[in-house]
Design goal:
Oligomer: heterodimer
Largest sheet of chain B: 7 strands, antiparallel
Structural class of chain B: alpha+beta
Radius of gyration of chain A: 19 Å
Strand order of the largest sheet of chain A: 5-6-7
Largest interface: A-B, 114 and 91 residues
CATH class of chain A: Mainly Alpha
CATH topology of chain A: Glycosyltransferase
Helix content of chain A: 40-55%
Number of strands of chain B: 35
Number of domains of chain B: 5
Number of strands of chain A: 9
Distance between the termini of chain B: 156 Å
CATH class of the largest domain in chain B: Alpha Beta
CATH architecture of the largest domain in chain B: 2-Layer Sandwich
Shape of chain A: globular
Order of helices and strands of chain A: HHHEHHEHHEEEHHEEHHEEHH
Strand content of chain A: 5-15%
Structural class of chain A: mainly alpha
Number of helices of chain B: 18
Shape of chain B: globular
Strand content of chain B: 25-35%
Helix content of chain B: 25-40%
Number of domains of chain A: 1
CATH architecture of chain A: Alpha/alpha barrel
Largest sheet of chain A: 3 strands, antiparallel
Number of helices of chain A: 13
Radius of gyration of chain B: 35 Å
CATH topology of the largest domain in chain B: Chitobiase, domain 2
Distance between the termini of chain A: 16 Å
Chain lengths: 358, 752
């Protein structure tokens, strides 16, 4: 039984429901079948005023969380929640003179946004959510806002790779990651599917070009080992970060997820991670979350279902089997793995319908 | 450096590609710009920072910011789980996963599933005993597949505690294993039958069974059965995931899986719930589930799910026959859990051994044994014909006065044998005659109860008591001849209910949800299929009019009271009924009435007696049914009032009832007897079936009249309405006498 057989049989049964984007799966419309999971996520992490709360990080909210939450609201066809999150974000994080968002908001402080620097992954997901919302909720104002963000990202955070003028890199933020000798990049900020959809919908080709370069960059990084949380890019090439985390940790966990979601499951970065998961993961037991990139030694592990979901998805993608070892969603885990678990769910729905949870 | 400037340096080839990509996405729908949802930021935006604070940057790139405070998941994840004991006798009271065993000496049988590959060296029992138990003299002894594993005192009194038994090698076999526990309990203060009723031990079945190390298991069909047993403990539903993906085939698969998995697993019925692939954590760790995936080719496999549950994965091609897919696995062969009680043929001396009874020595002060047997469905005796038990037994000498053995048939006492005179020698073939009409076609229960007072009763029983009574399996039961006759009774229809027997209409959907129907279906799935399955109509209180009542007239309000009163009201009802009977003022009230009232009361009394006589001559069940119903309270009521529809039963349930309790009672009655009979049956709060038999039901001869059957068949017909036939005969006799008298007078008249 392979993926083609599975899709053929699902199609023969007339079960390939249509959803956004126009990709079918046996689950039908995720807005219906996954409603319980979405409501559970909202109850755990979304406040009544539209703030996505990251309990682990001082109950803060950040552009990443707001963008993630708003994107999920479009998937689950939840216009009201989307609007709440959007309004809160615009009111509290859209305080920069440019169109980008301040990266974090801290509750209970006189100045809740002490650092007005942005986070390009948060901006990217925010823009992607707006693009999807414009189509799902048929509201063009969302698209206009997405266009502003995309243009600002292209303006301030996309630049040629040092030593390779034909390739572009995505800076993690406007400030703080360009150094005299190198750039510090976070490979997990590359979400090729999001970059391409935003590029197409907003007319920002730099984002699409950056997506292409990003995939090539990830390929180059993964050819040496697991993709780490941070890398340095110099005129002479790539090197492990000397200051930031050089392990494949909580940041880099997203890399295989985003590549699978972007329909490049055969990417070497996915295969590398899949090999580690296949070697170490036992279903129902803690999965690796921090790994030494070259040796593959597991430094930390976690039993949070969200991280198990990433492992299950990656293994299923690699093995081309039917069914994935993805656990049920639990709202008792922190915001980050919980949200990644919903992303895994969306990725399965949109790209790997045979990887439904066993 | 501006990114845009850098972009301008990018090659034209790249730009062309990007534009082509952009063309693939359709523009979103236009929207009135005035309908903007974007609120303005609070206050004027400050200027962008020219640099970033090292502290801010450090917080953002801190690799530990996503880390949860020290998770000690390793130990927890590697903990063992339990392949639980499956209680076989559904008659024991259950509360969730906890079974209560009462009495001084009890044997309880369980099944436990094991796999070949798992590391299973410990059999654990998790128990708590009542405060009246004397721990030093209360113990349990356990055997596995006939091998004694040892004895432990019942020392856990205040809270549940574990008792572990190490398994000898080669005792456990893959698949189903039989566990038997002997419980000996002794009262810490008193001795005797009353004290025995206060003795109990609870066994938490969810934590009792084979200890399985999580990392030792190899996933296969046996592991799945172990996990399925663990999942089903305490009536936790088993999840079937993705069934709807099979489209039109889903219903067929639903019925098959519910039926077959209930047949595979012994013990209480297995409940199911149906989910999509994406689920939220139910809070409790799942042990087992079934996941259905549409596929081009069908196959079955077992895997471990992401949450550690053992999953039976069914890859199903369109049009696949469920039976074919599971045929390769012997463990999933059709198996019936309600092994039918032994059939007793009339006019034969049937040894107790054939009823499943074995020679037993009793050393306790109270014991009760039920022996279930079946009589042919065309067997019927309503006359005073006698059945006979020839009892082989022996009892000890010098038993205290009051020691006795009580024999009952279907709840009616048939003989009380004193055990305090004589004794010391075997008594063989002691004849006990009883009225055969106490037995019914279908299932019957012969009950033996032993009472031996404490000696003395106000001190703890002495330890190491020797047997006081032995009842031999060579004792026999003789059932008299019956012509092939039948009488309206729901017993036959109840015995032939199957998984497809349930019927629901629009109104009853309010009272019975899909899950309820499935739970009942699961209980009925455990029986062997019959060629002519009967029908169980599930009805709502609003739909009482749909019950065919024949000539009976059941009072709707009384029916509603029977099932609408909650347990609290039922207790109050019982209390009031009892107190009214004992109320001296109630007794005196008629005497204190004035003369006119007394006259009225006398008239009412006369009318009552006249009605009584009328009911005997022309039995009319309406009033009697209503009088009976007025005294009933319970979870559910079963009806079969229309004799013209013998294959159908109607069920009404209390809105507050637990469907699992009803399902368990149905499954238990089908396996162990004592179930619904007659025309109306109420499942009481205590889990018993109270039955009402219409006094005017008439037997039917199912074979031609002959010289051989005439006497017995006529006897049954007359016995069904004795006073009617007596008066009829008297009338005929009187008429004959009058005619004769007239003849005599007319022949002696003088003609002038």
């Amino acid at each position: 039984m392979n993926r083609r057989d599975f899709l053929a049989s699902a199609g023969a049964l007339g079960l390939m429901g249509l959803s956004l984007p126009a990709q079918g799966s046996i689950q039908g419309d995720l807005a219906q079948t996954g409603r319980g999971v979405w409501e559970s996520w909202k109850a755990a992490f979304l406040s009544a005023d539209g703030r996505v709360i990251d309990g682990l990080q001082q109950q803060s909210s950040h552009s990443e969380g707001q963008g993630y939450g708003m994107f999920l609201a479009t998937v689950f066809d939840d216009a009201a929640s989307f609007r709440q999150m959007f309004q809160w974000t615009e009111r509290h994080l859209a305080i920069r003179p440019d169109a980008l968002l301040a990266w974090r908001w801290l509750p209970g402080q006189a100045n809740p946004v002490p650092d007005r620097n942005n986070a390009s992954d948060g901006d990217l997901f925010y823009a992607w959510a707006l693009v999807r919302a414009a189509a799902r909720f048929r509201d063009r104002t969302y698209l206009e806002r997405a266009q502003e963000i995309a243009a600002a990202l292209a303006e301030t955070c996309i630049l040629p790779m040092p030593g390779r003028s034909d390739q572009l890199v995505l800076l993690p933020a406007t400030y703080g990651f360009q150094h005299e000798t190198h750039l510090s990049l976070n490979p997990s900020y590359y979400m090729p599917l999001a970059m391409r959809e935003v590029a197409a919908a907003t007319g920002t080709p730099a984002l699409a070009a950056c997506a292409l370069s990003g995939e090539a960059l990830l390929h180059e990084i993964a050819s040496e080992g697991l993709v780490p949380d941070w890398v340095d890019v110099t005129q002479s090439g790539l090197r492990a970060s000397e200051v930031l985390s050089a392990n494949a940790g909580y940041e880099a966990l997203r890399v295989p997820l985003f590549l699978i979601w972007s329909r490049v499951p055969d990417h070497i970065a996915v295969r590398r991670m899949a090999a580690v998961y296949e070697r170490t993961v036992q279903p129902g037991i803690a999965v690796p979350t921090v790994i030494e990139p070259l040796s593959g030694v597991v430094l930390e592990s976690s039993a949070d279902p969200g991280y198990q979901a990433l492992a299950g998805l990656t293994i299923c993608s690699s093995q081309r089997g039917l069914g994935a070892t993805i656990p049920p969603f639990s709202p008792d885990q922190p915001y980050y793995p919980a949200t990644l678990q919903l992303f895994a769910m969306v990725a399965v729905h949109e790209t790997l319908p045979e990887c439904v949870p066993l | 450096m501006s990114c845009t400037k850098q972009m301008r340096r990018a090659g034209p080839r790249l730009l062309a590609g990007l534009l082509a990509l952009a063309m693939q996405f359709a523009p979103v729908a236009a929207q009135d710009a005035s309908d903007s949802l974007i609120p303005m930021p609070e206050g004027a935006g400050p200027e962008l920072p020219t640099d970033v604070s090292p502290i801010d940057l450090q917080e953002r790139i801190d690799p530990t910011r996503r880390v949860v405070a020290a998770q000690d998941a390793t130990d927890a994840d590697r903990q063992s789980w339990v392949s639980p004991l499956r209680l076989l006798d559904l008659g024991y009271p259950m509360r969730g996963s906890v079974a209560r065993i009462s009495g001084e000496r009890e044997w309880v049988a369980f099944d436990v599933y094991a796999s070949a590959g798992a590391d299973q060296q410990i059999l654990r029992l998790t128990t708590v005993s009542g405060i009246n138990n004397l721990p030093e003299r209360s113990y349990l002894r356990i055997s596995l597949n006939g091998t004694d594993l040892g004895r432990r005192n019942l020392e856990h009194v205040e809270s549940f505690g574990a008792i572990d038994f190490t398994l000898p090698p080669d005792v456990l076999v893959p698949g189903r294993n039989r566990v038997q526990i002997e419980l000996r309990q002794q009262h810490r203060i008193y001795c005797g039958p009353e004290a025995a009723f206060d003795l109990w031990t609870d066994i938490d079945l969810s934590k009792s069974g084979l200890l399985i190390r999580r990392d030792s298991e190899s996933v296969g069909v046996e592991t799945f059965l172990m996990a399925l047993a663990a999942q089903a403990t305490g009536v936790r539903p088993v999840e079937i995931r993705g069934l709807e993906s099979l489209g039109a085939d889903a219903e067929n698969w639903r019925k098959f899986l519910v039926s077959r998995l209930n047949q595979v697993l012994s013990g209480a019925p297995v409940a199911f719930r149906f989910e999509d692939y994406w689920t939220a954590d139910p809070g409790e760790r799942a042990h087992a589930r079934i996941t259905v995936l549409p596929a081009a080719q069908s196959r079955m496999r077992f895997a471990t799910g992401g949450d550690g549950a053992v999953v039976m994965v069914l890859e199903v091609a369109q049009g696949e026959n469920p039976e074919d897919l599971l045929a390769a696995i012997p463990q999933f062969e059709r198996r019936y859990q309600d092994a039918l009680a032994p059939l007793v043929m009339p006019e034969r001396n049937i040894p107790f051994a054939e009823l499943g009874a074995r020679t037993e020595d009793f050393s306790q002060h109270y014991a009760m044994r039920n022996h279930v047997f079946r009589l042919p469905h065309d067997w019927l005796v309503l006359t005073a014909a006698k059945a006979r038990i020839e009892l082989d037994y022996a009892f000890a000498t010098n038993l205290p006065e009051g020691a006795m053995l009580l024999l009952s048939m279907n709840g009616t006492a048939i003989r009380l044998l004193p055990l305090w005179h004589g004794g010391g020698a075997p008594i063989e073939a002691f004849p006990i005659d009883f009225e055969a009409r106490l037995m019914h076609p279908g299932t019957n229960v012969l009950t033996l109860q032993m009472f031996v007072p404490g000696n003395p009763p106000d001190l703890p029983c002495p330890s190491g008591e020797s047997p006081v009574l032995q009842i031999s399996e060579s004792s026999t039961l003789h059932v008299p001849y019956s012509p092939a006759m039948a009488i309206p009774d729901m017993d036959l229809a109840f015995a032939t209910l199957g998984a497809d027997s349930l019927r629901r209409n629009e109104l009853s959907a309010r009272a019975f949800s899909d899950a309820d129907v499935l739970t009942l279906s699961a209980a009925l799935s455990r029986s062997r299929e019959t060629q002519h399955a009967s029908v169980l109509h599930l009805i709502a209180i609003d739909d009482l009019a749909s019950i065919p009542t024949g000539h009976h007239r059941a009072d709707r309000r009384l029916l509603e009271d029977t099932v609408l009163s909650g347990p609290g009201e039922a207790a109050l009802f019982n209390e009031n009924t009892a107190s009214m009977a004992q109320d001296p003022f109630m007794a005196r009230r008629p005497a204190s009435q004035p003369f006119t009232a007394m006259l009225t009361a006398g008239w009412d009394e006369a009318l009552g007696r006249a009605r009584w006589l009328r009911d005997r001559v022309f039995p009319h069940s309406g009033d009697q049914l209503n009088a009976w119903l007025a005294e009933q309270r319970g979870h559910a009521v079963l009806f079969q009032l229309d004799a013209e529809r013998p294959g159908e039963i109607w069920m009404l349930r209390s809105p507050e009832s637990d469907i699992h309790t009803i399902a368990l009672a149905i499954a238990g009655a089908r396996a162990f007897g004592g179930g619904p009979k007659g025309q109306v049956s109420v499942l009481t709060e205590e889990g018993h079936w109270n039955n009402w038999f219409a006094p005017d039901r008439r037997p039917v001869l199912l074979e031609p009249w002959s010289r051989q059957n005439f006497r017995a068949a006529m006897g049954n017909l007359v016995s069904a309405r004795p006073i009617f036939y007596t008066i009829l005969m008297l009338g005929i006799a009187l008429l004959s006498a009058l005619v004769a008298l007239r003849l005599v007078i007319s022949t002696r008249e003088h003609k002038t």
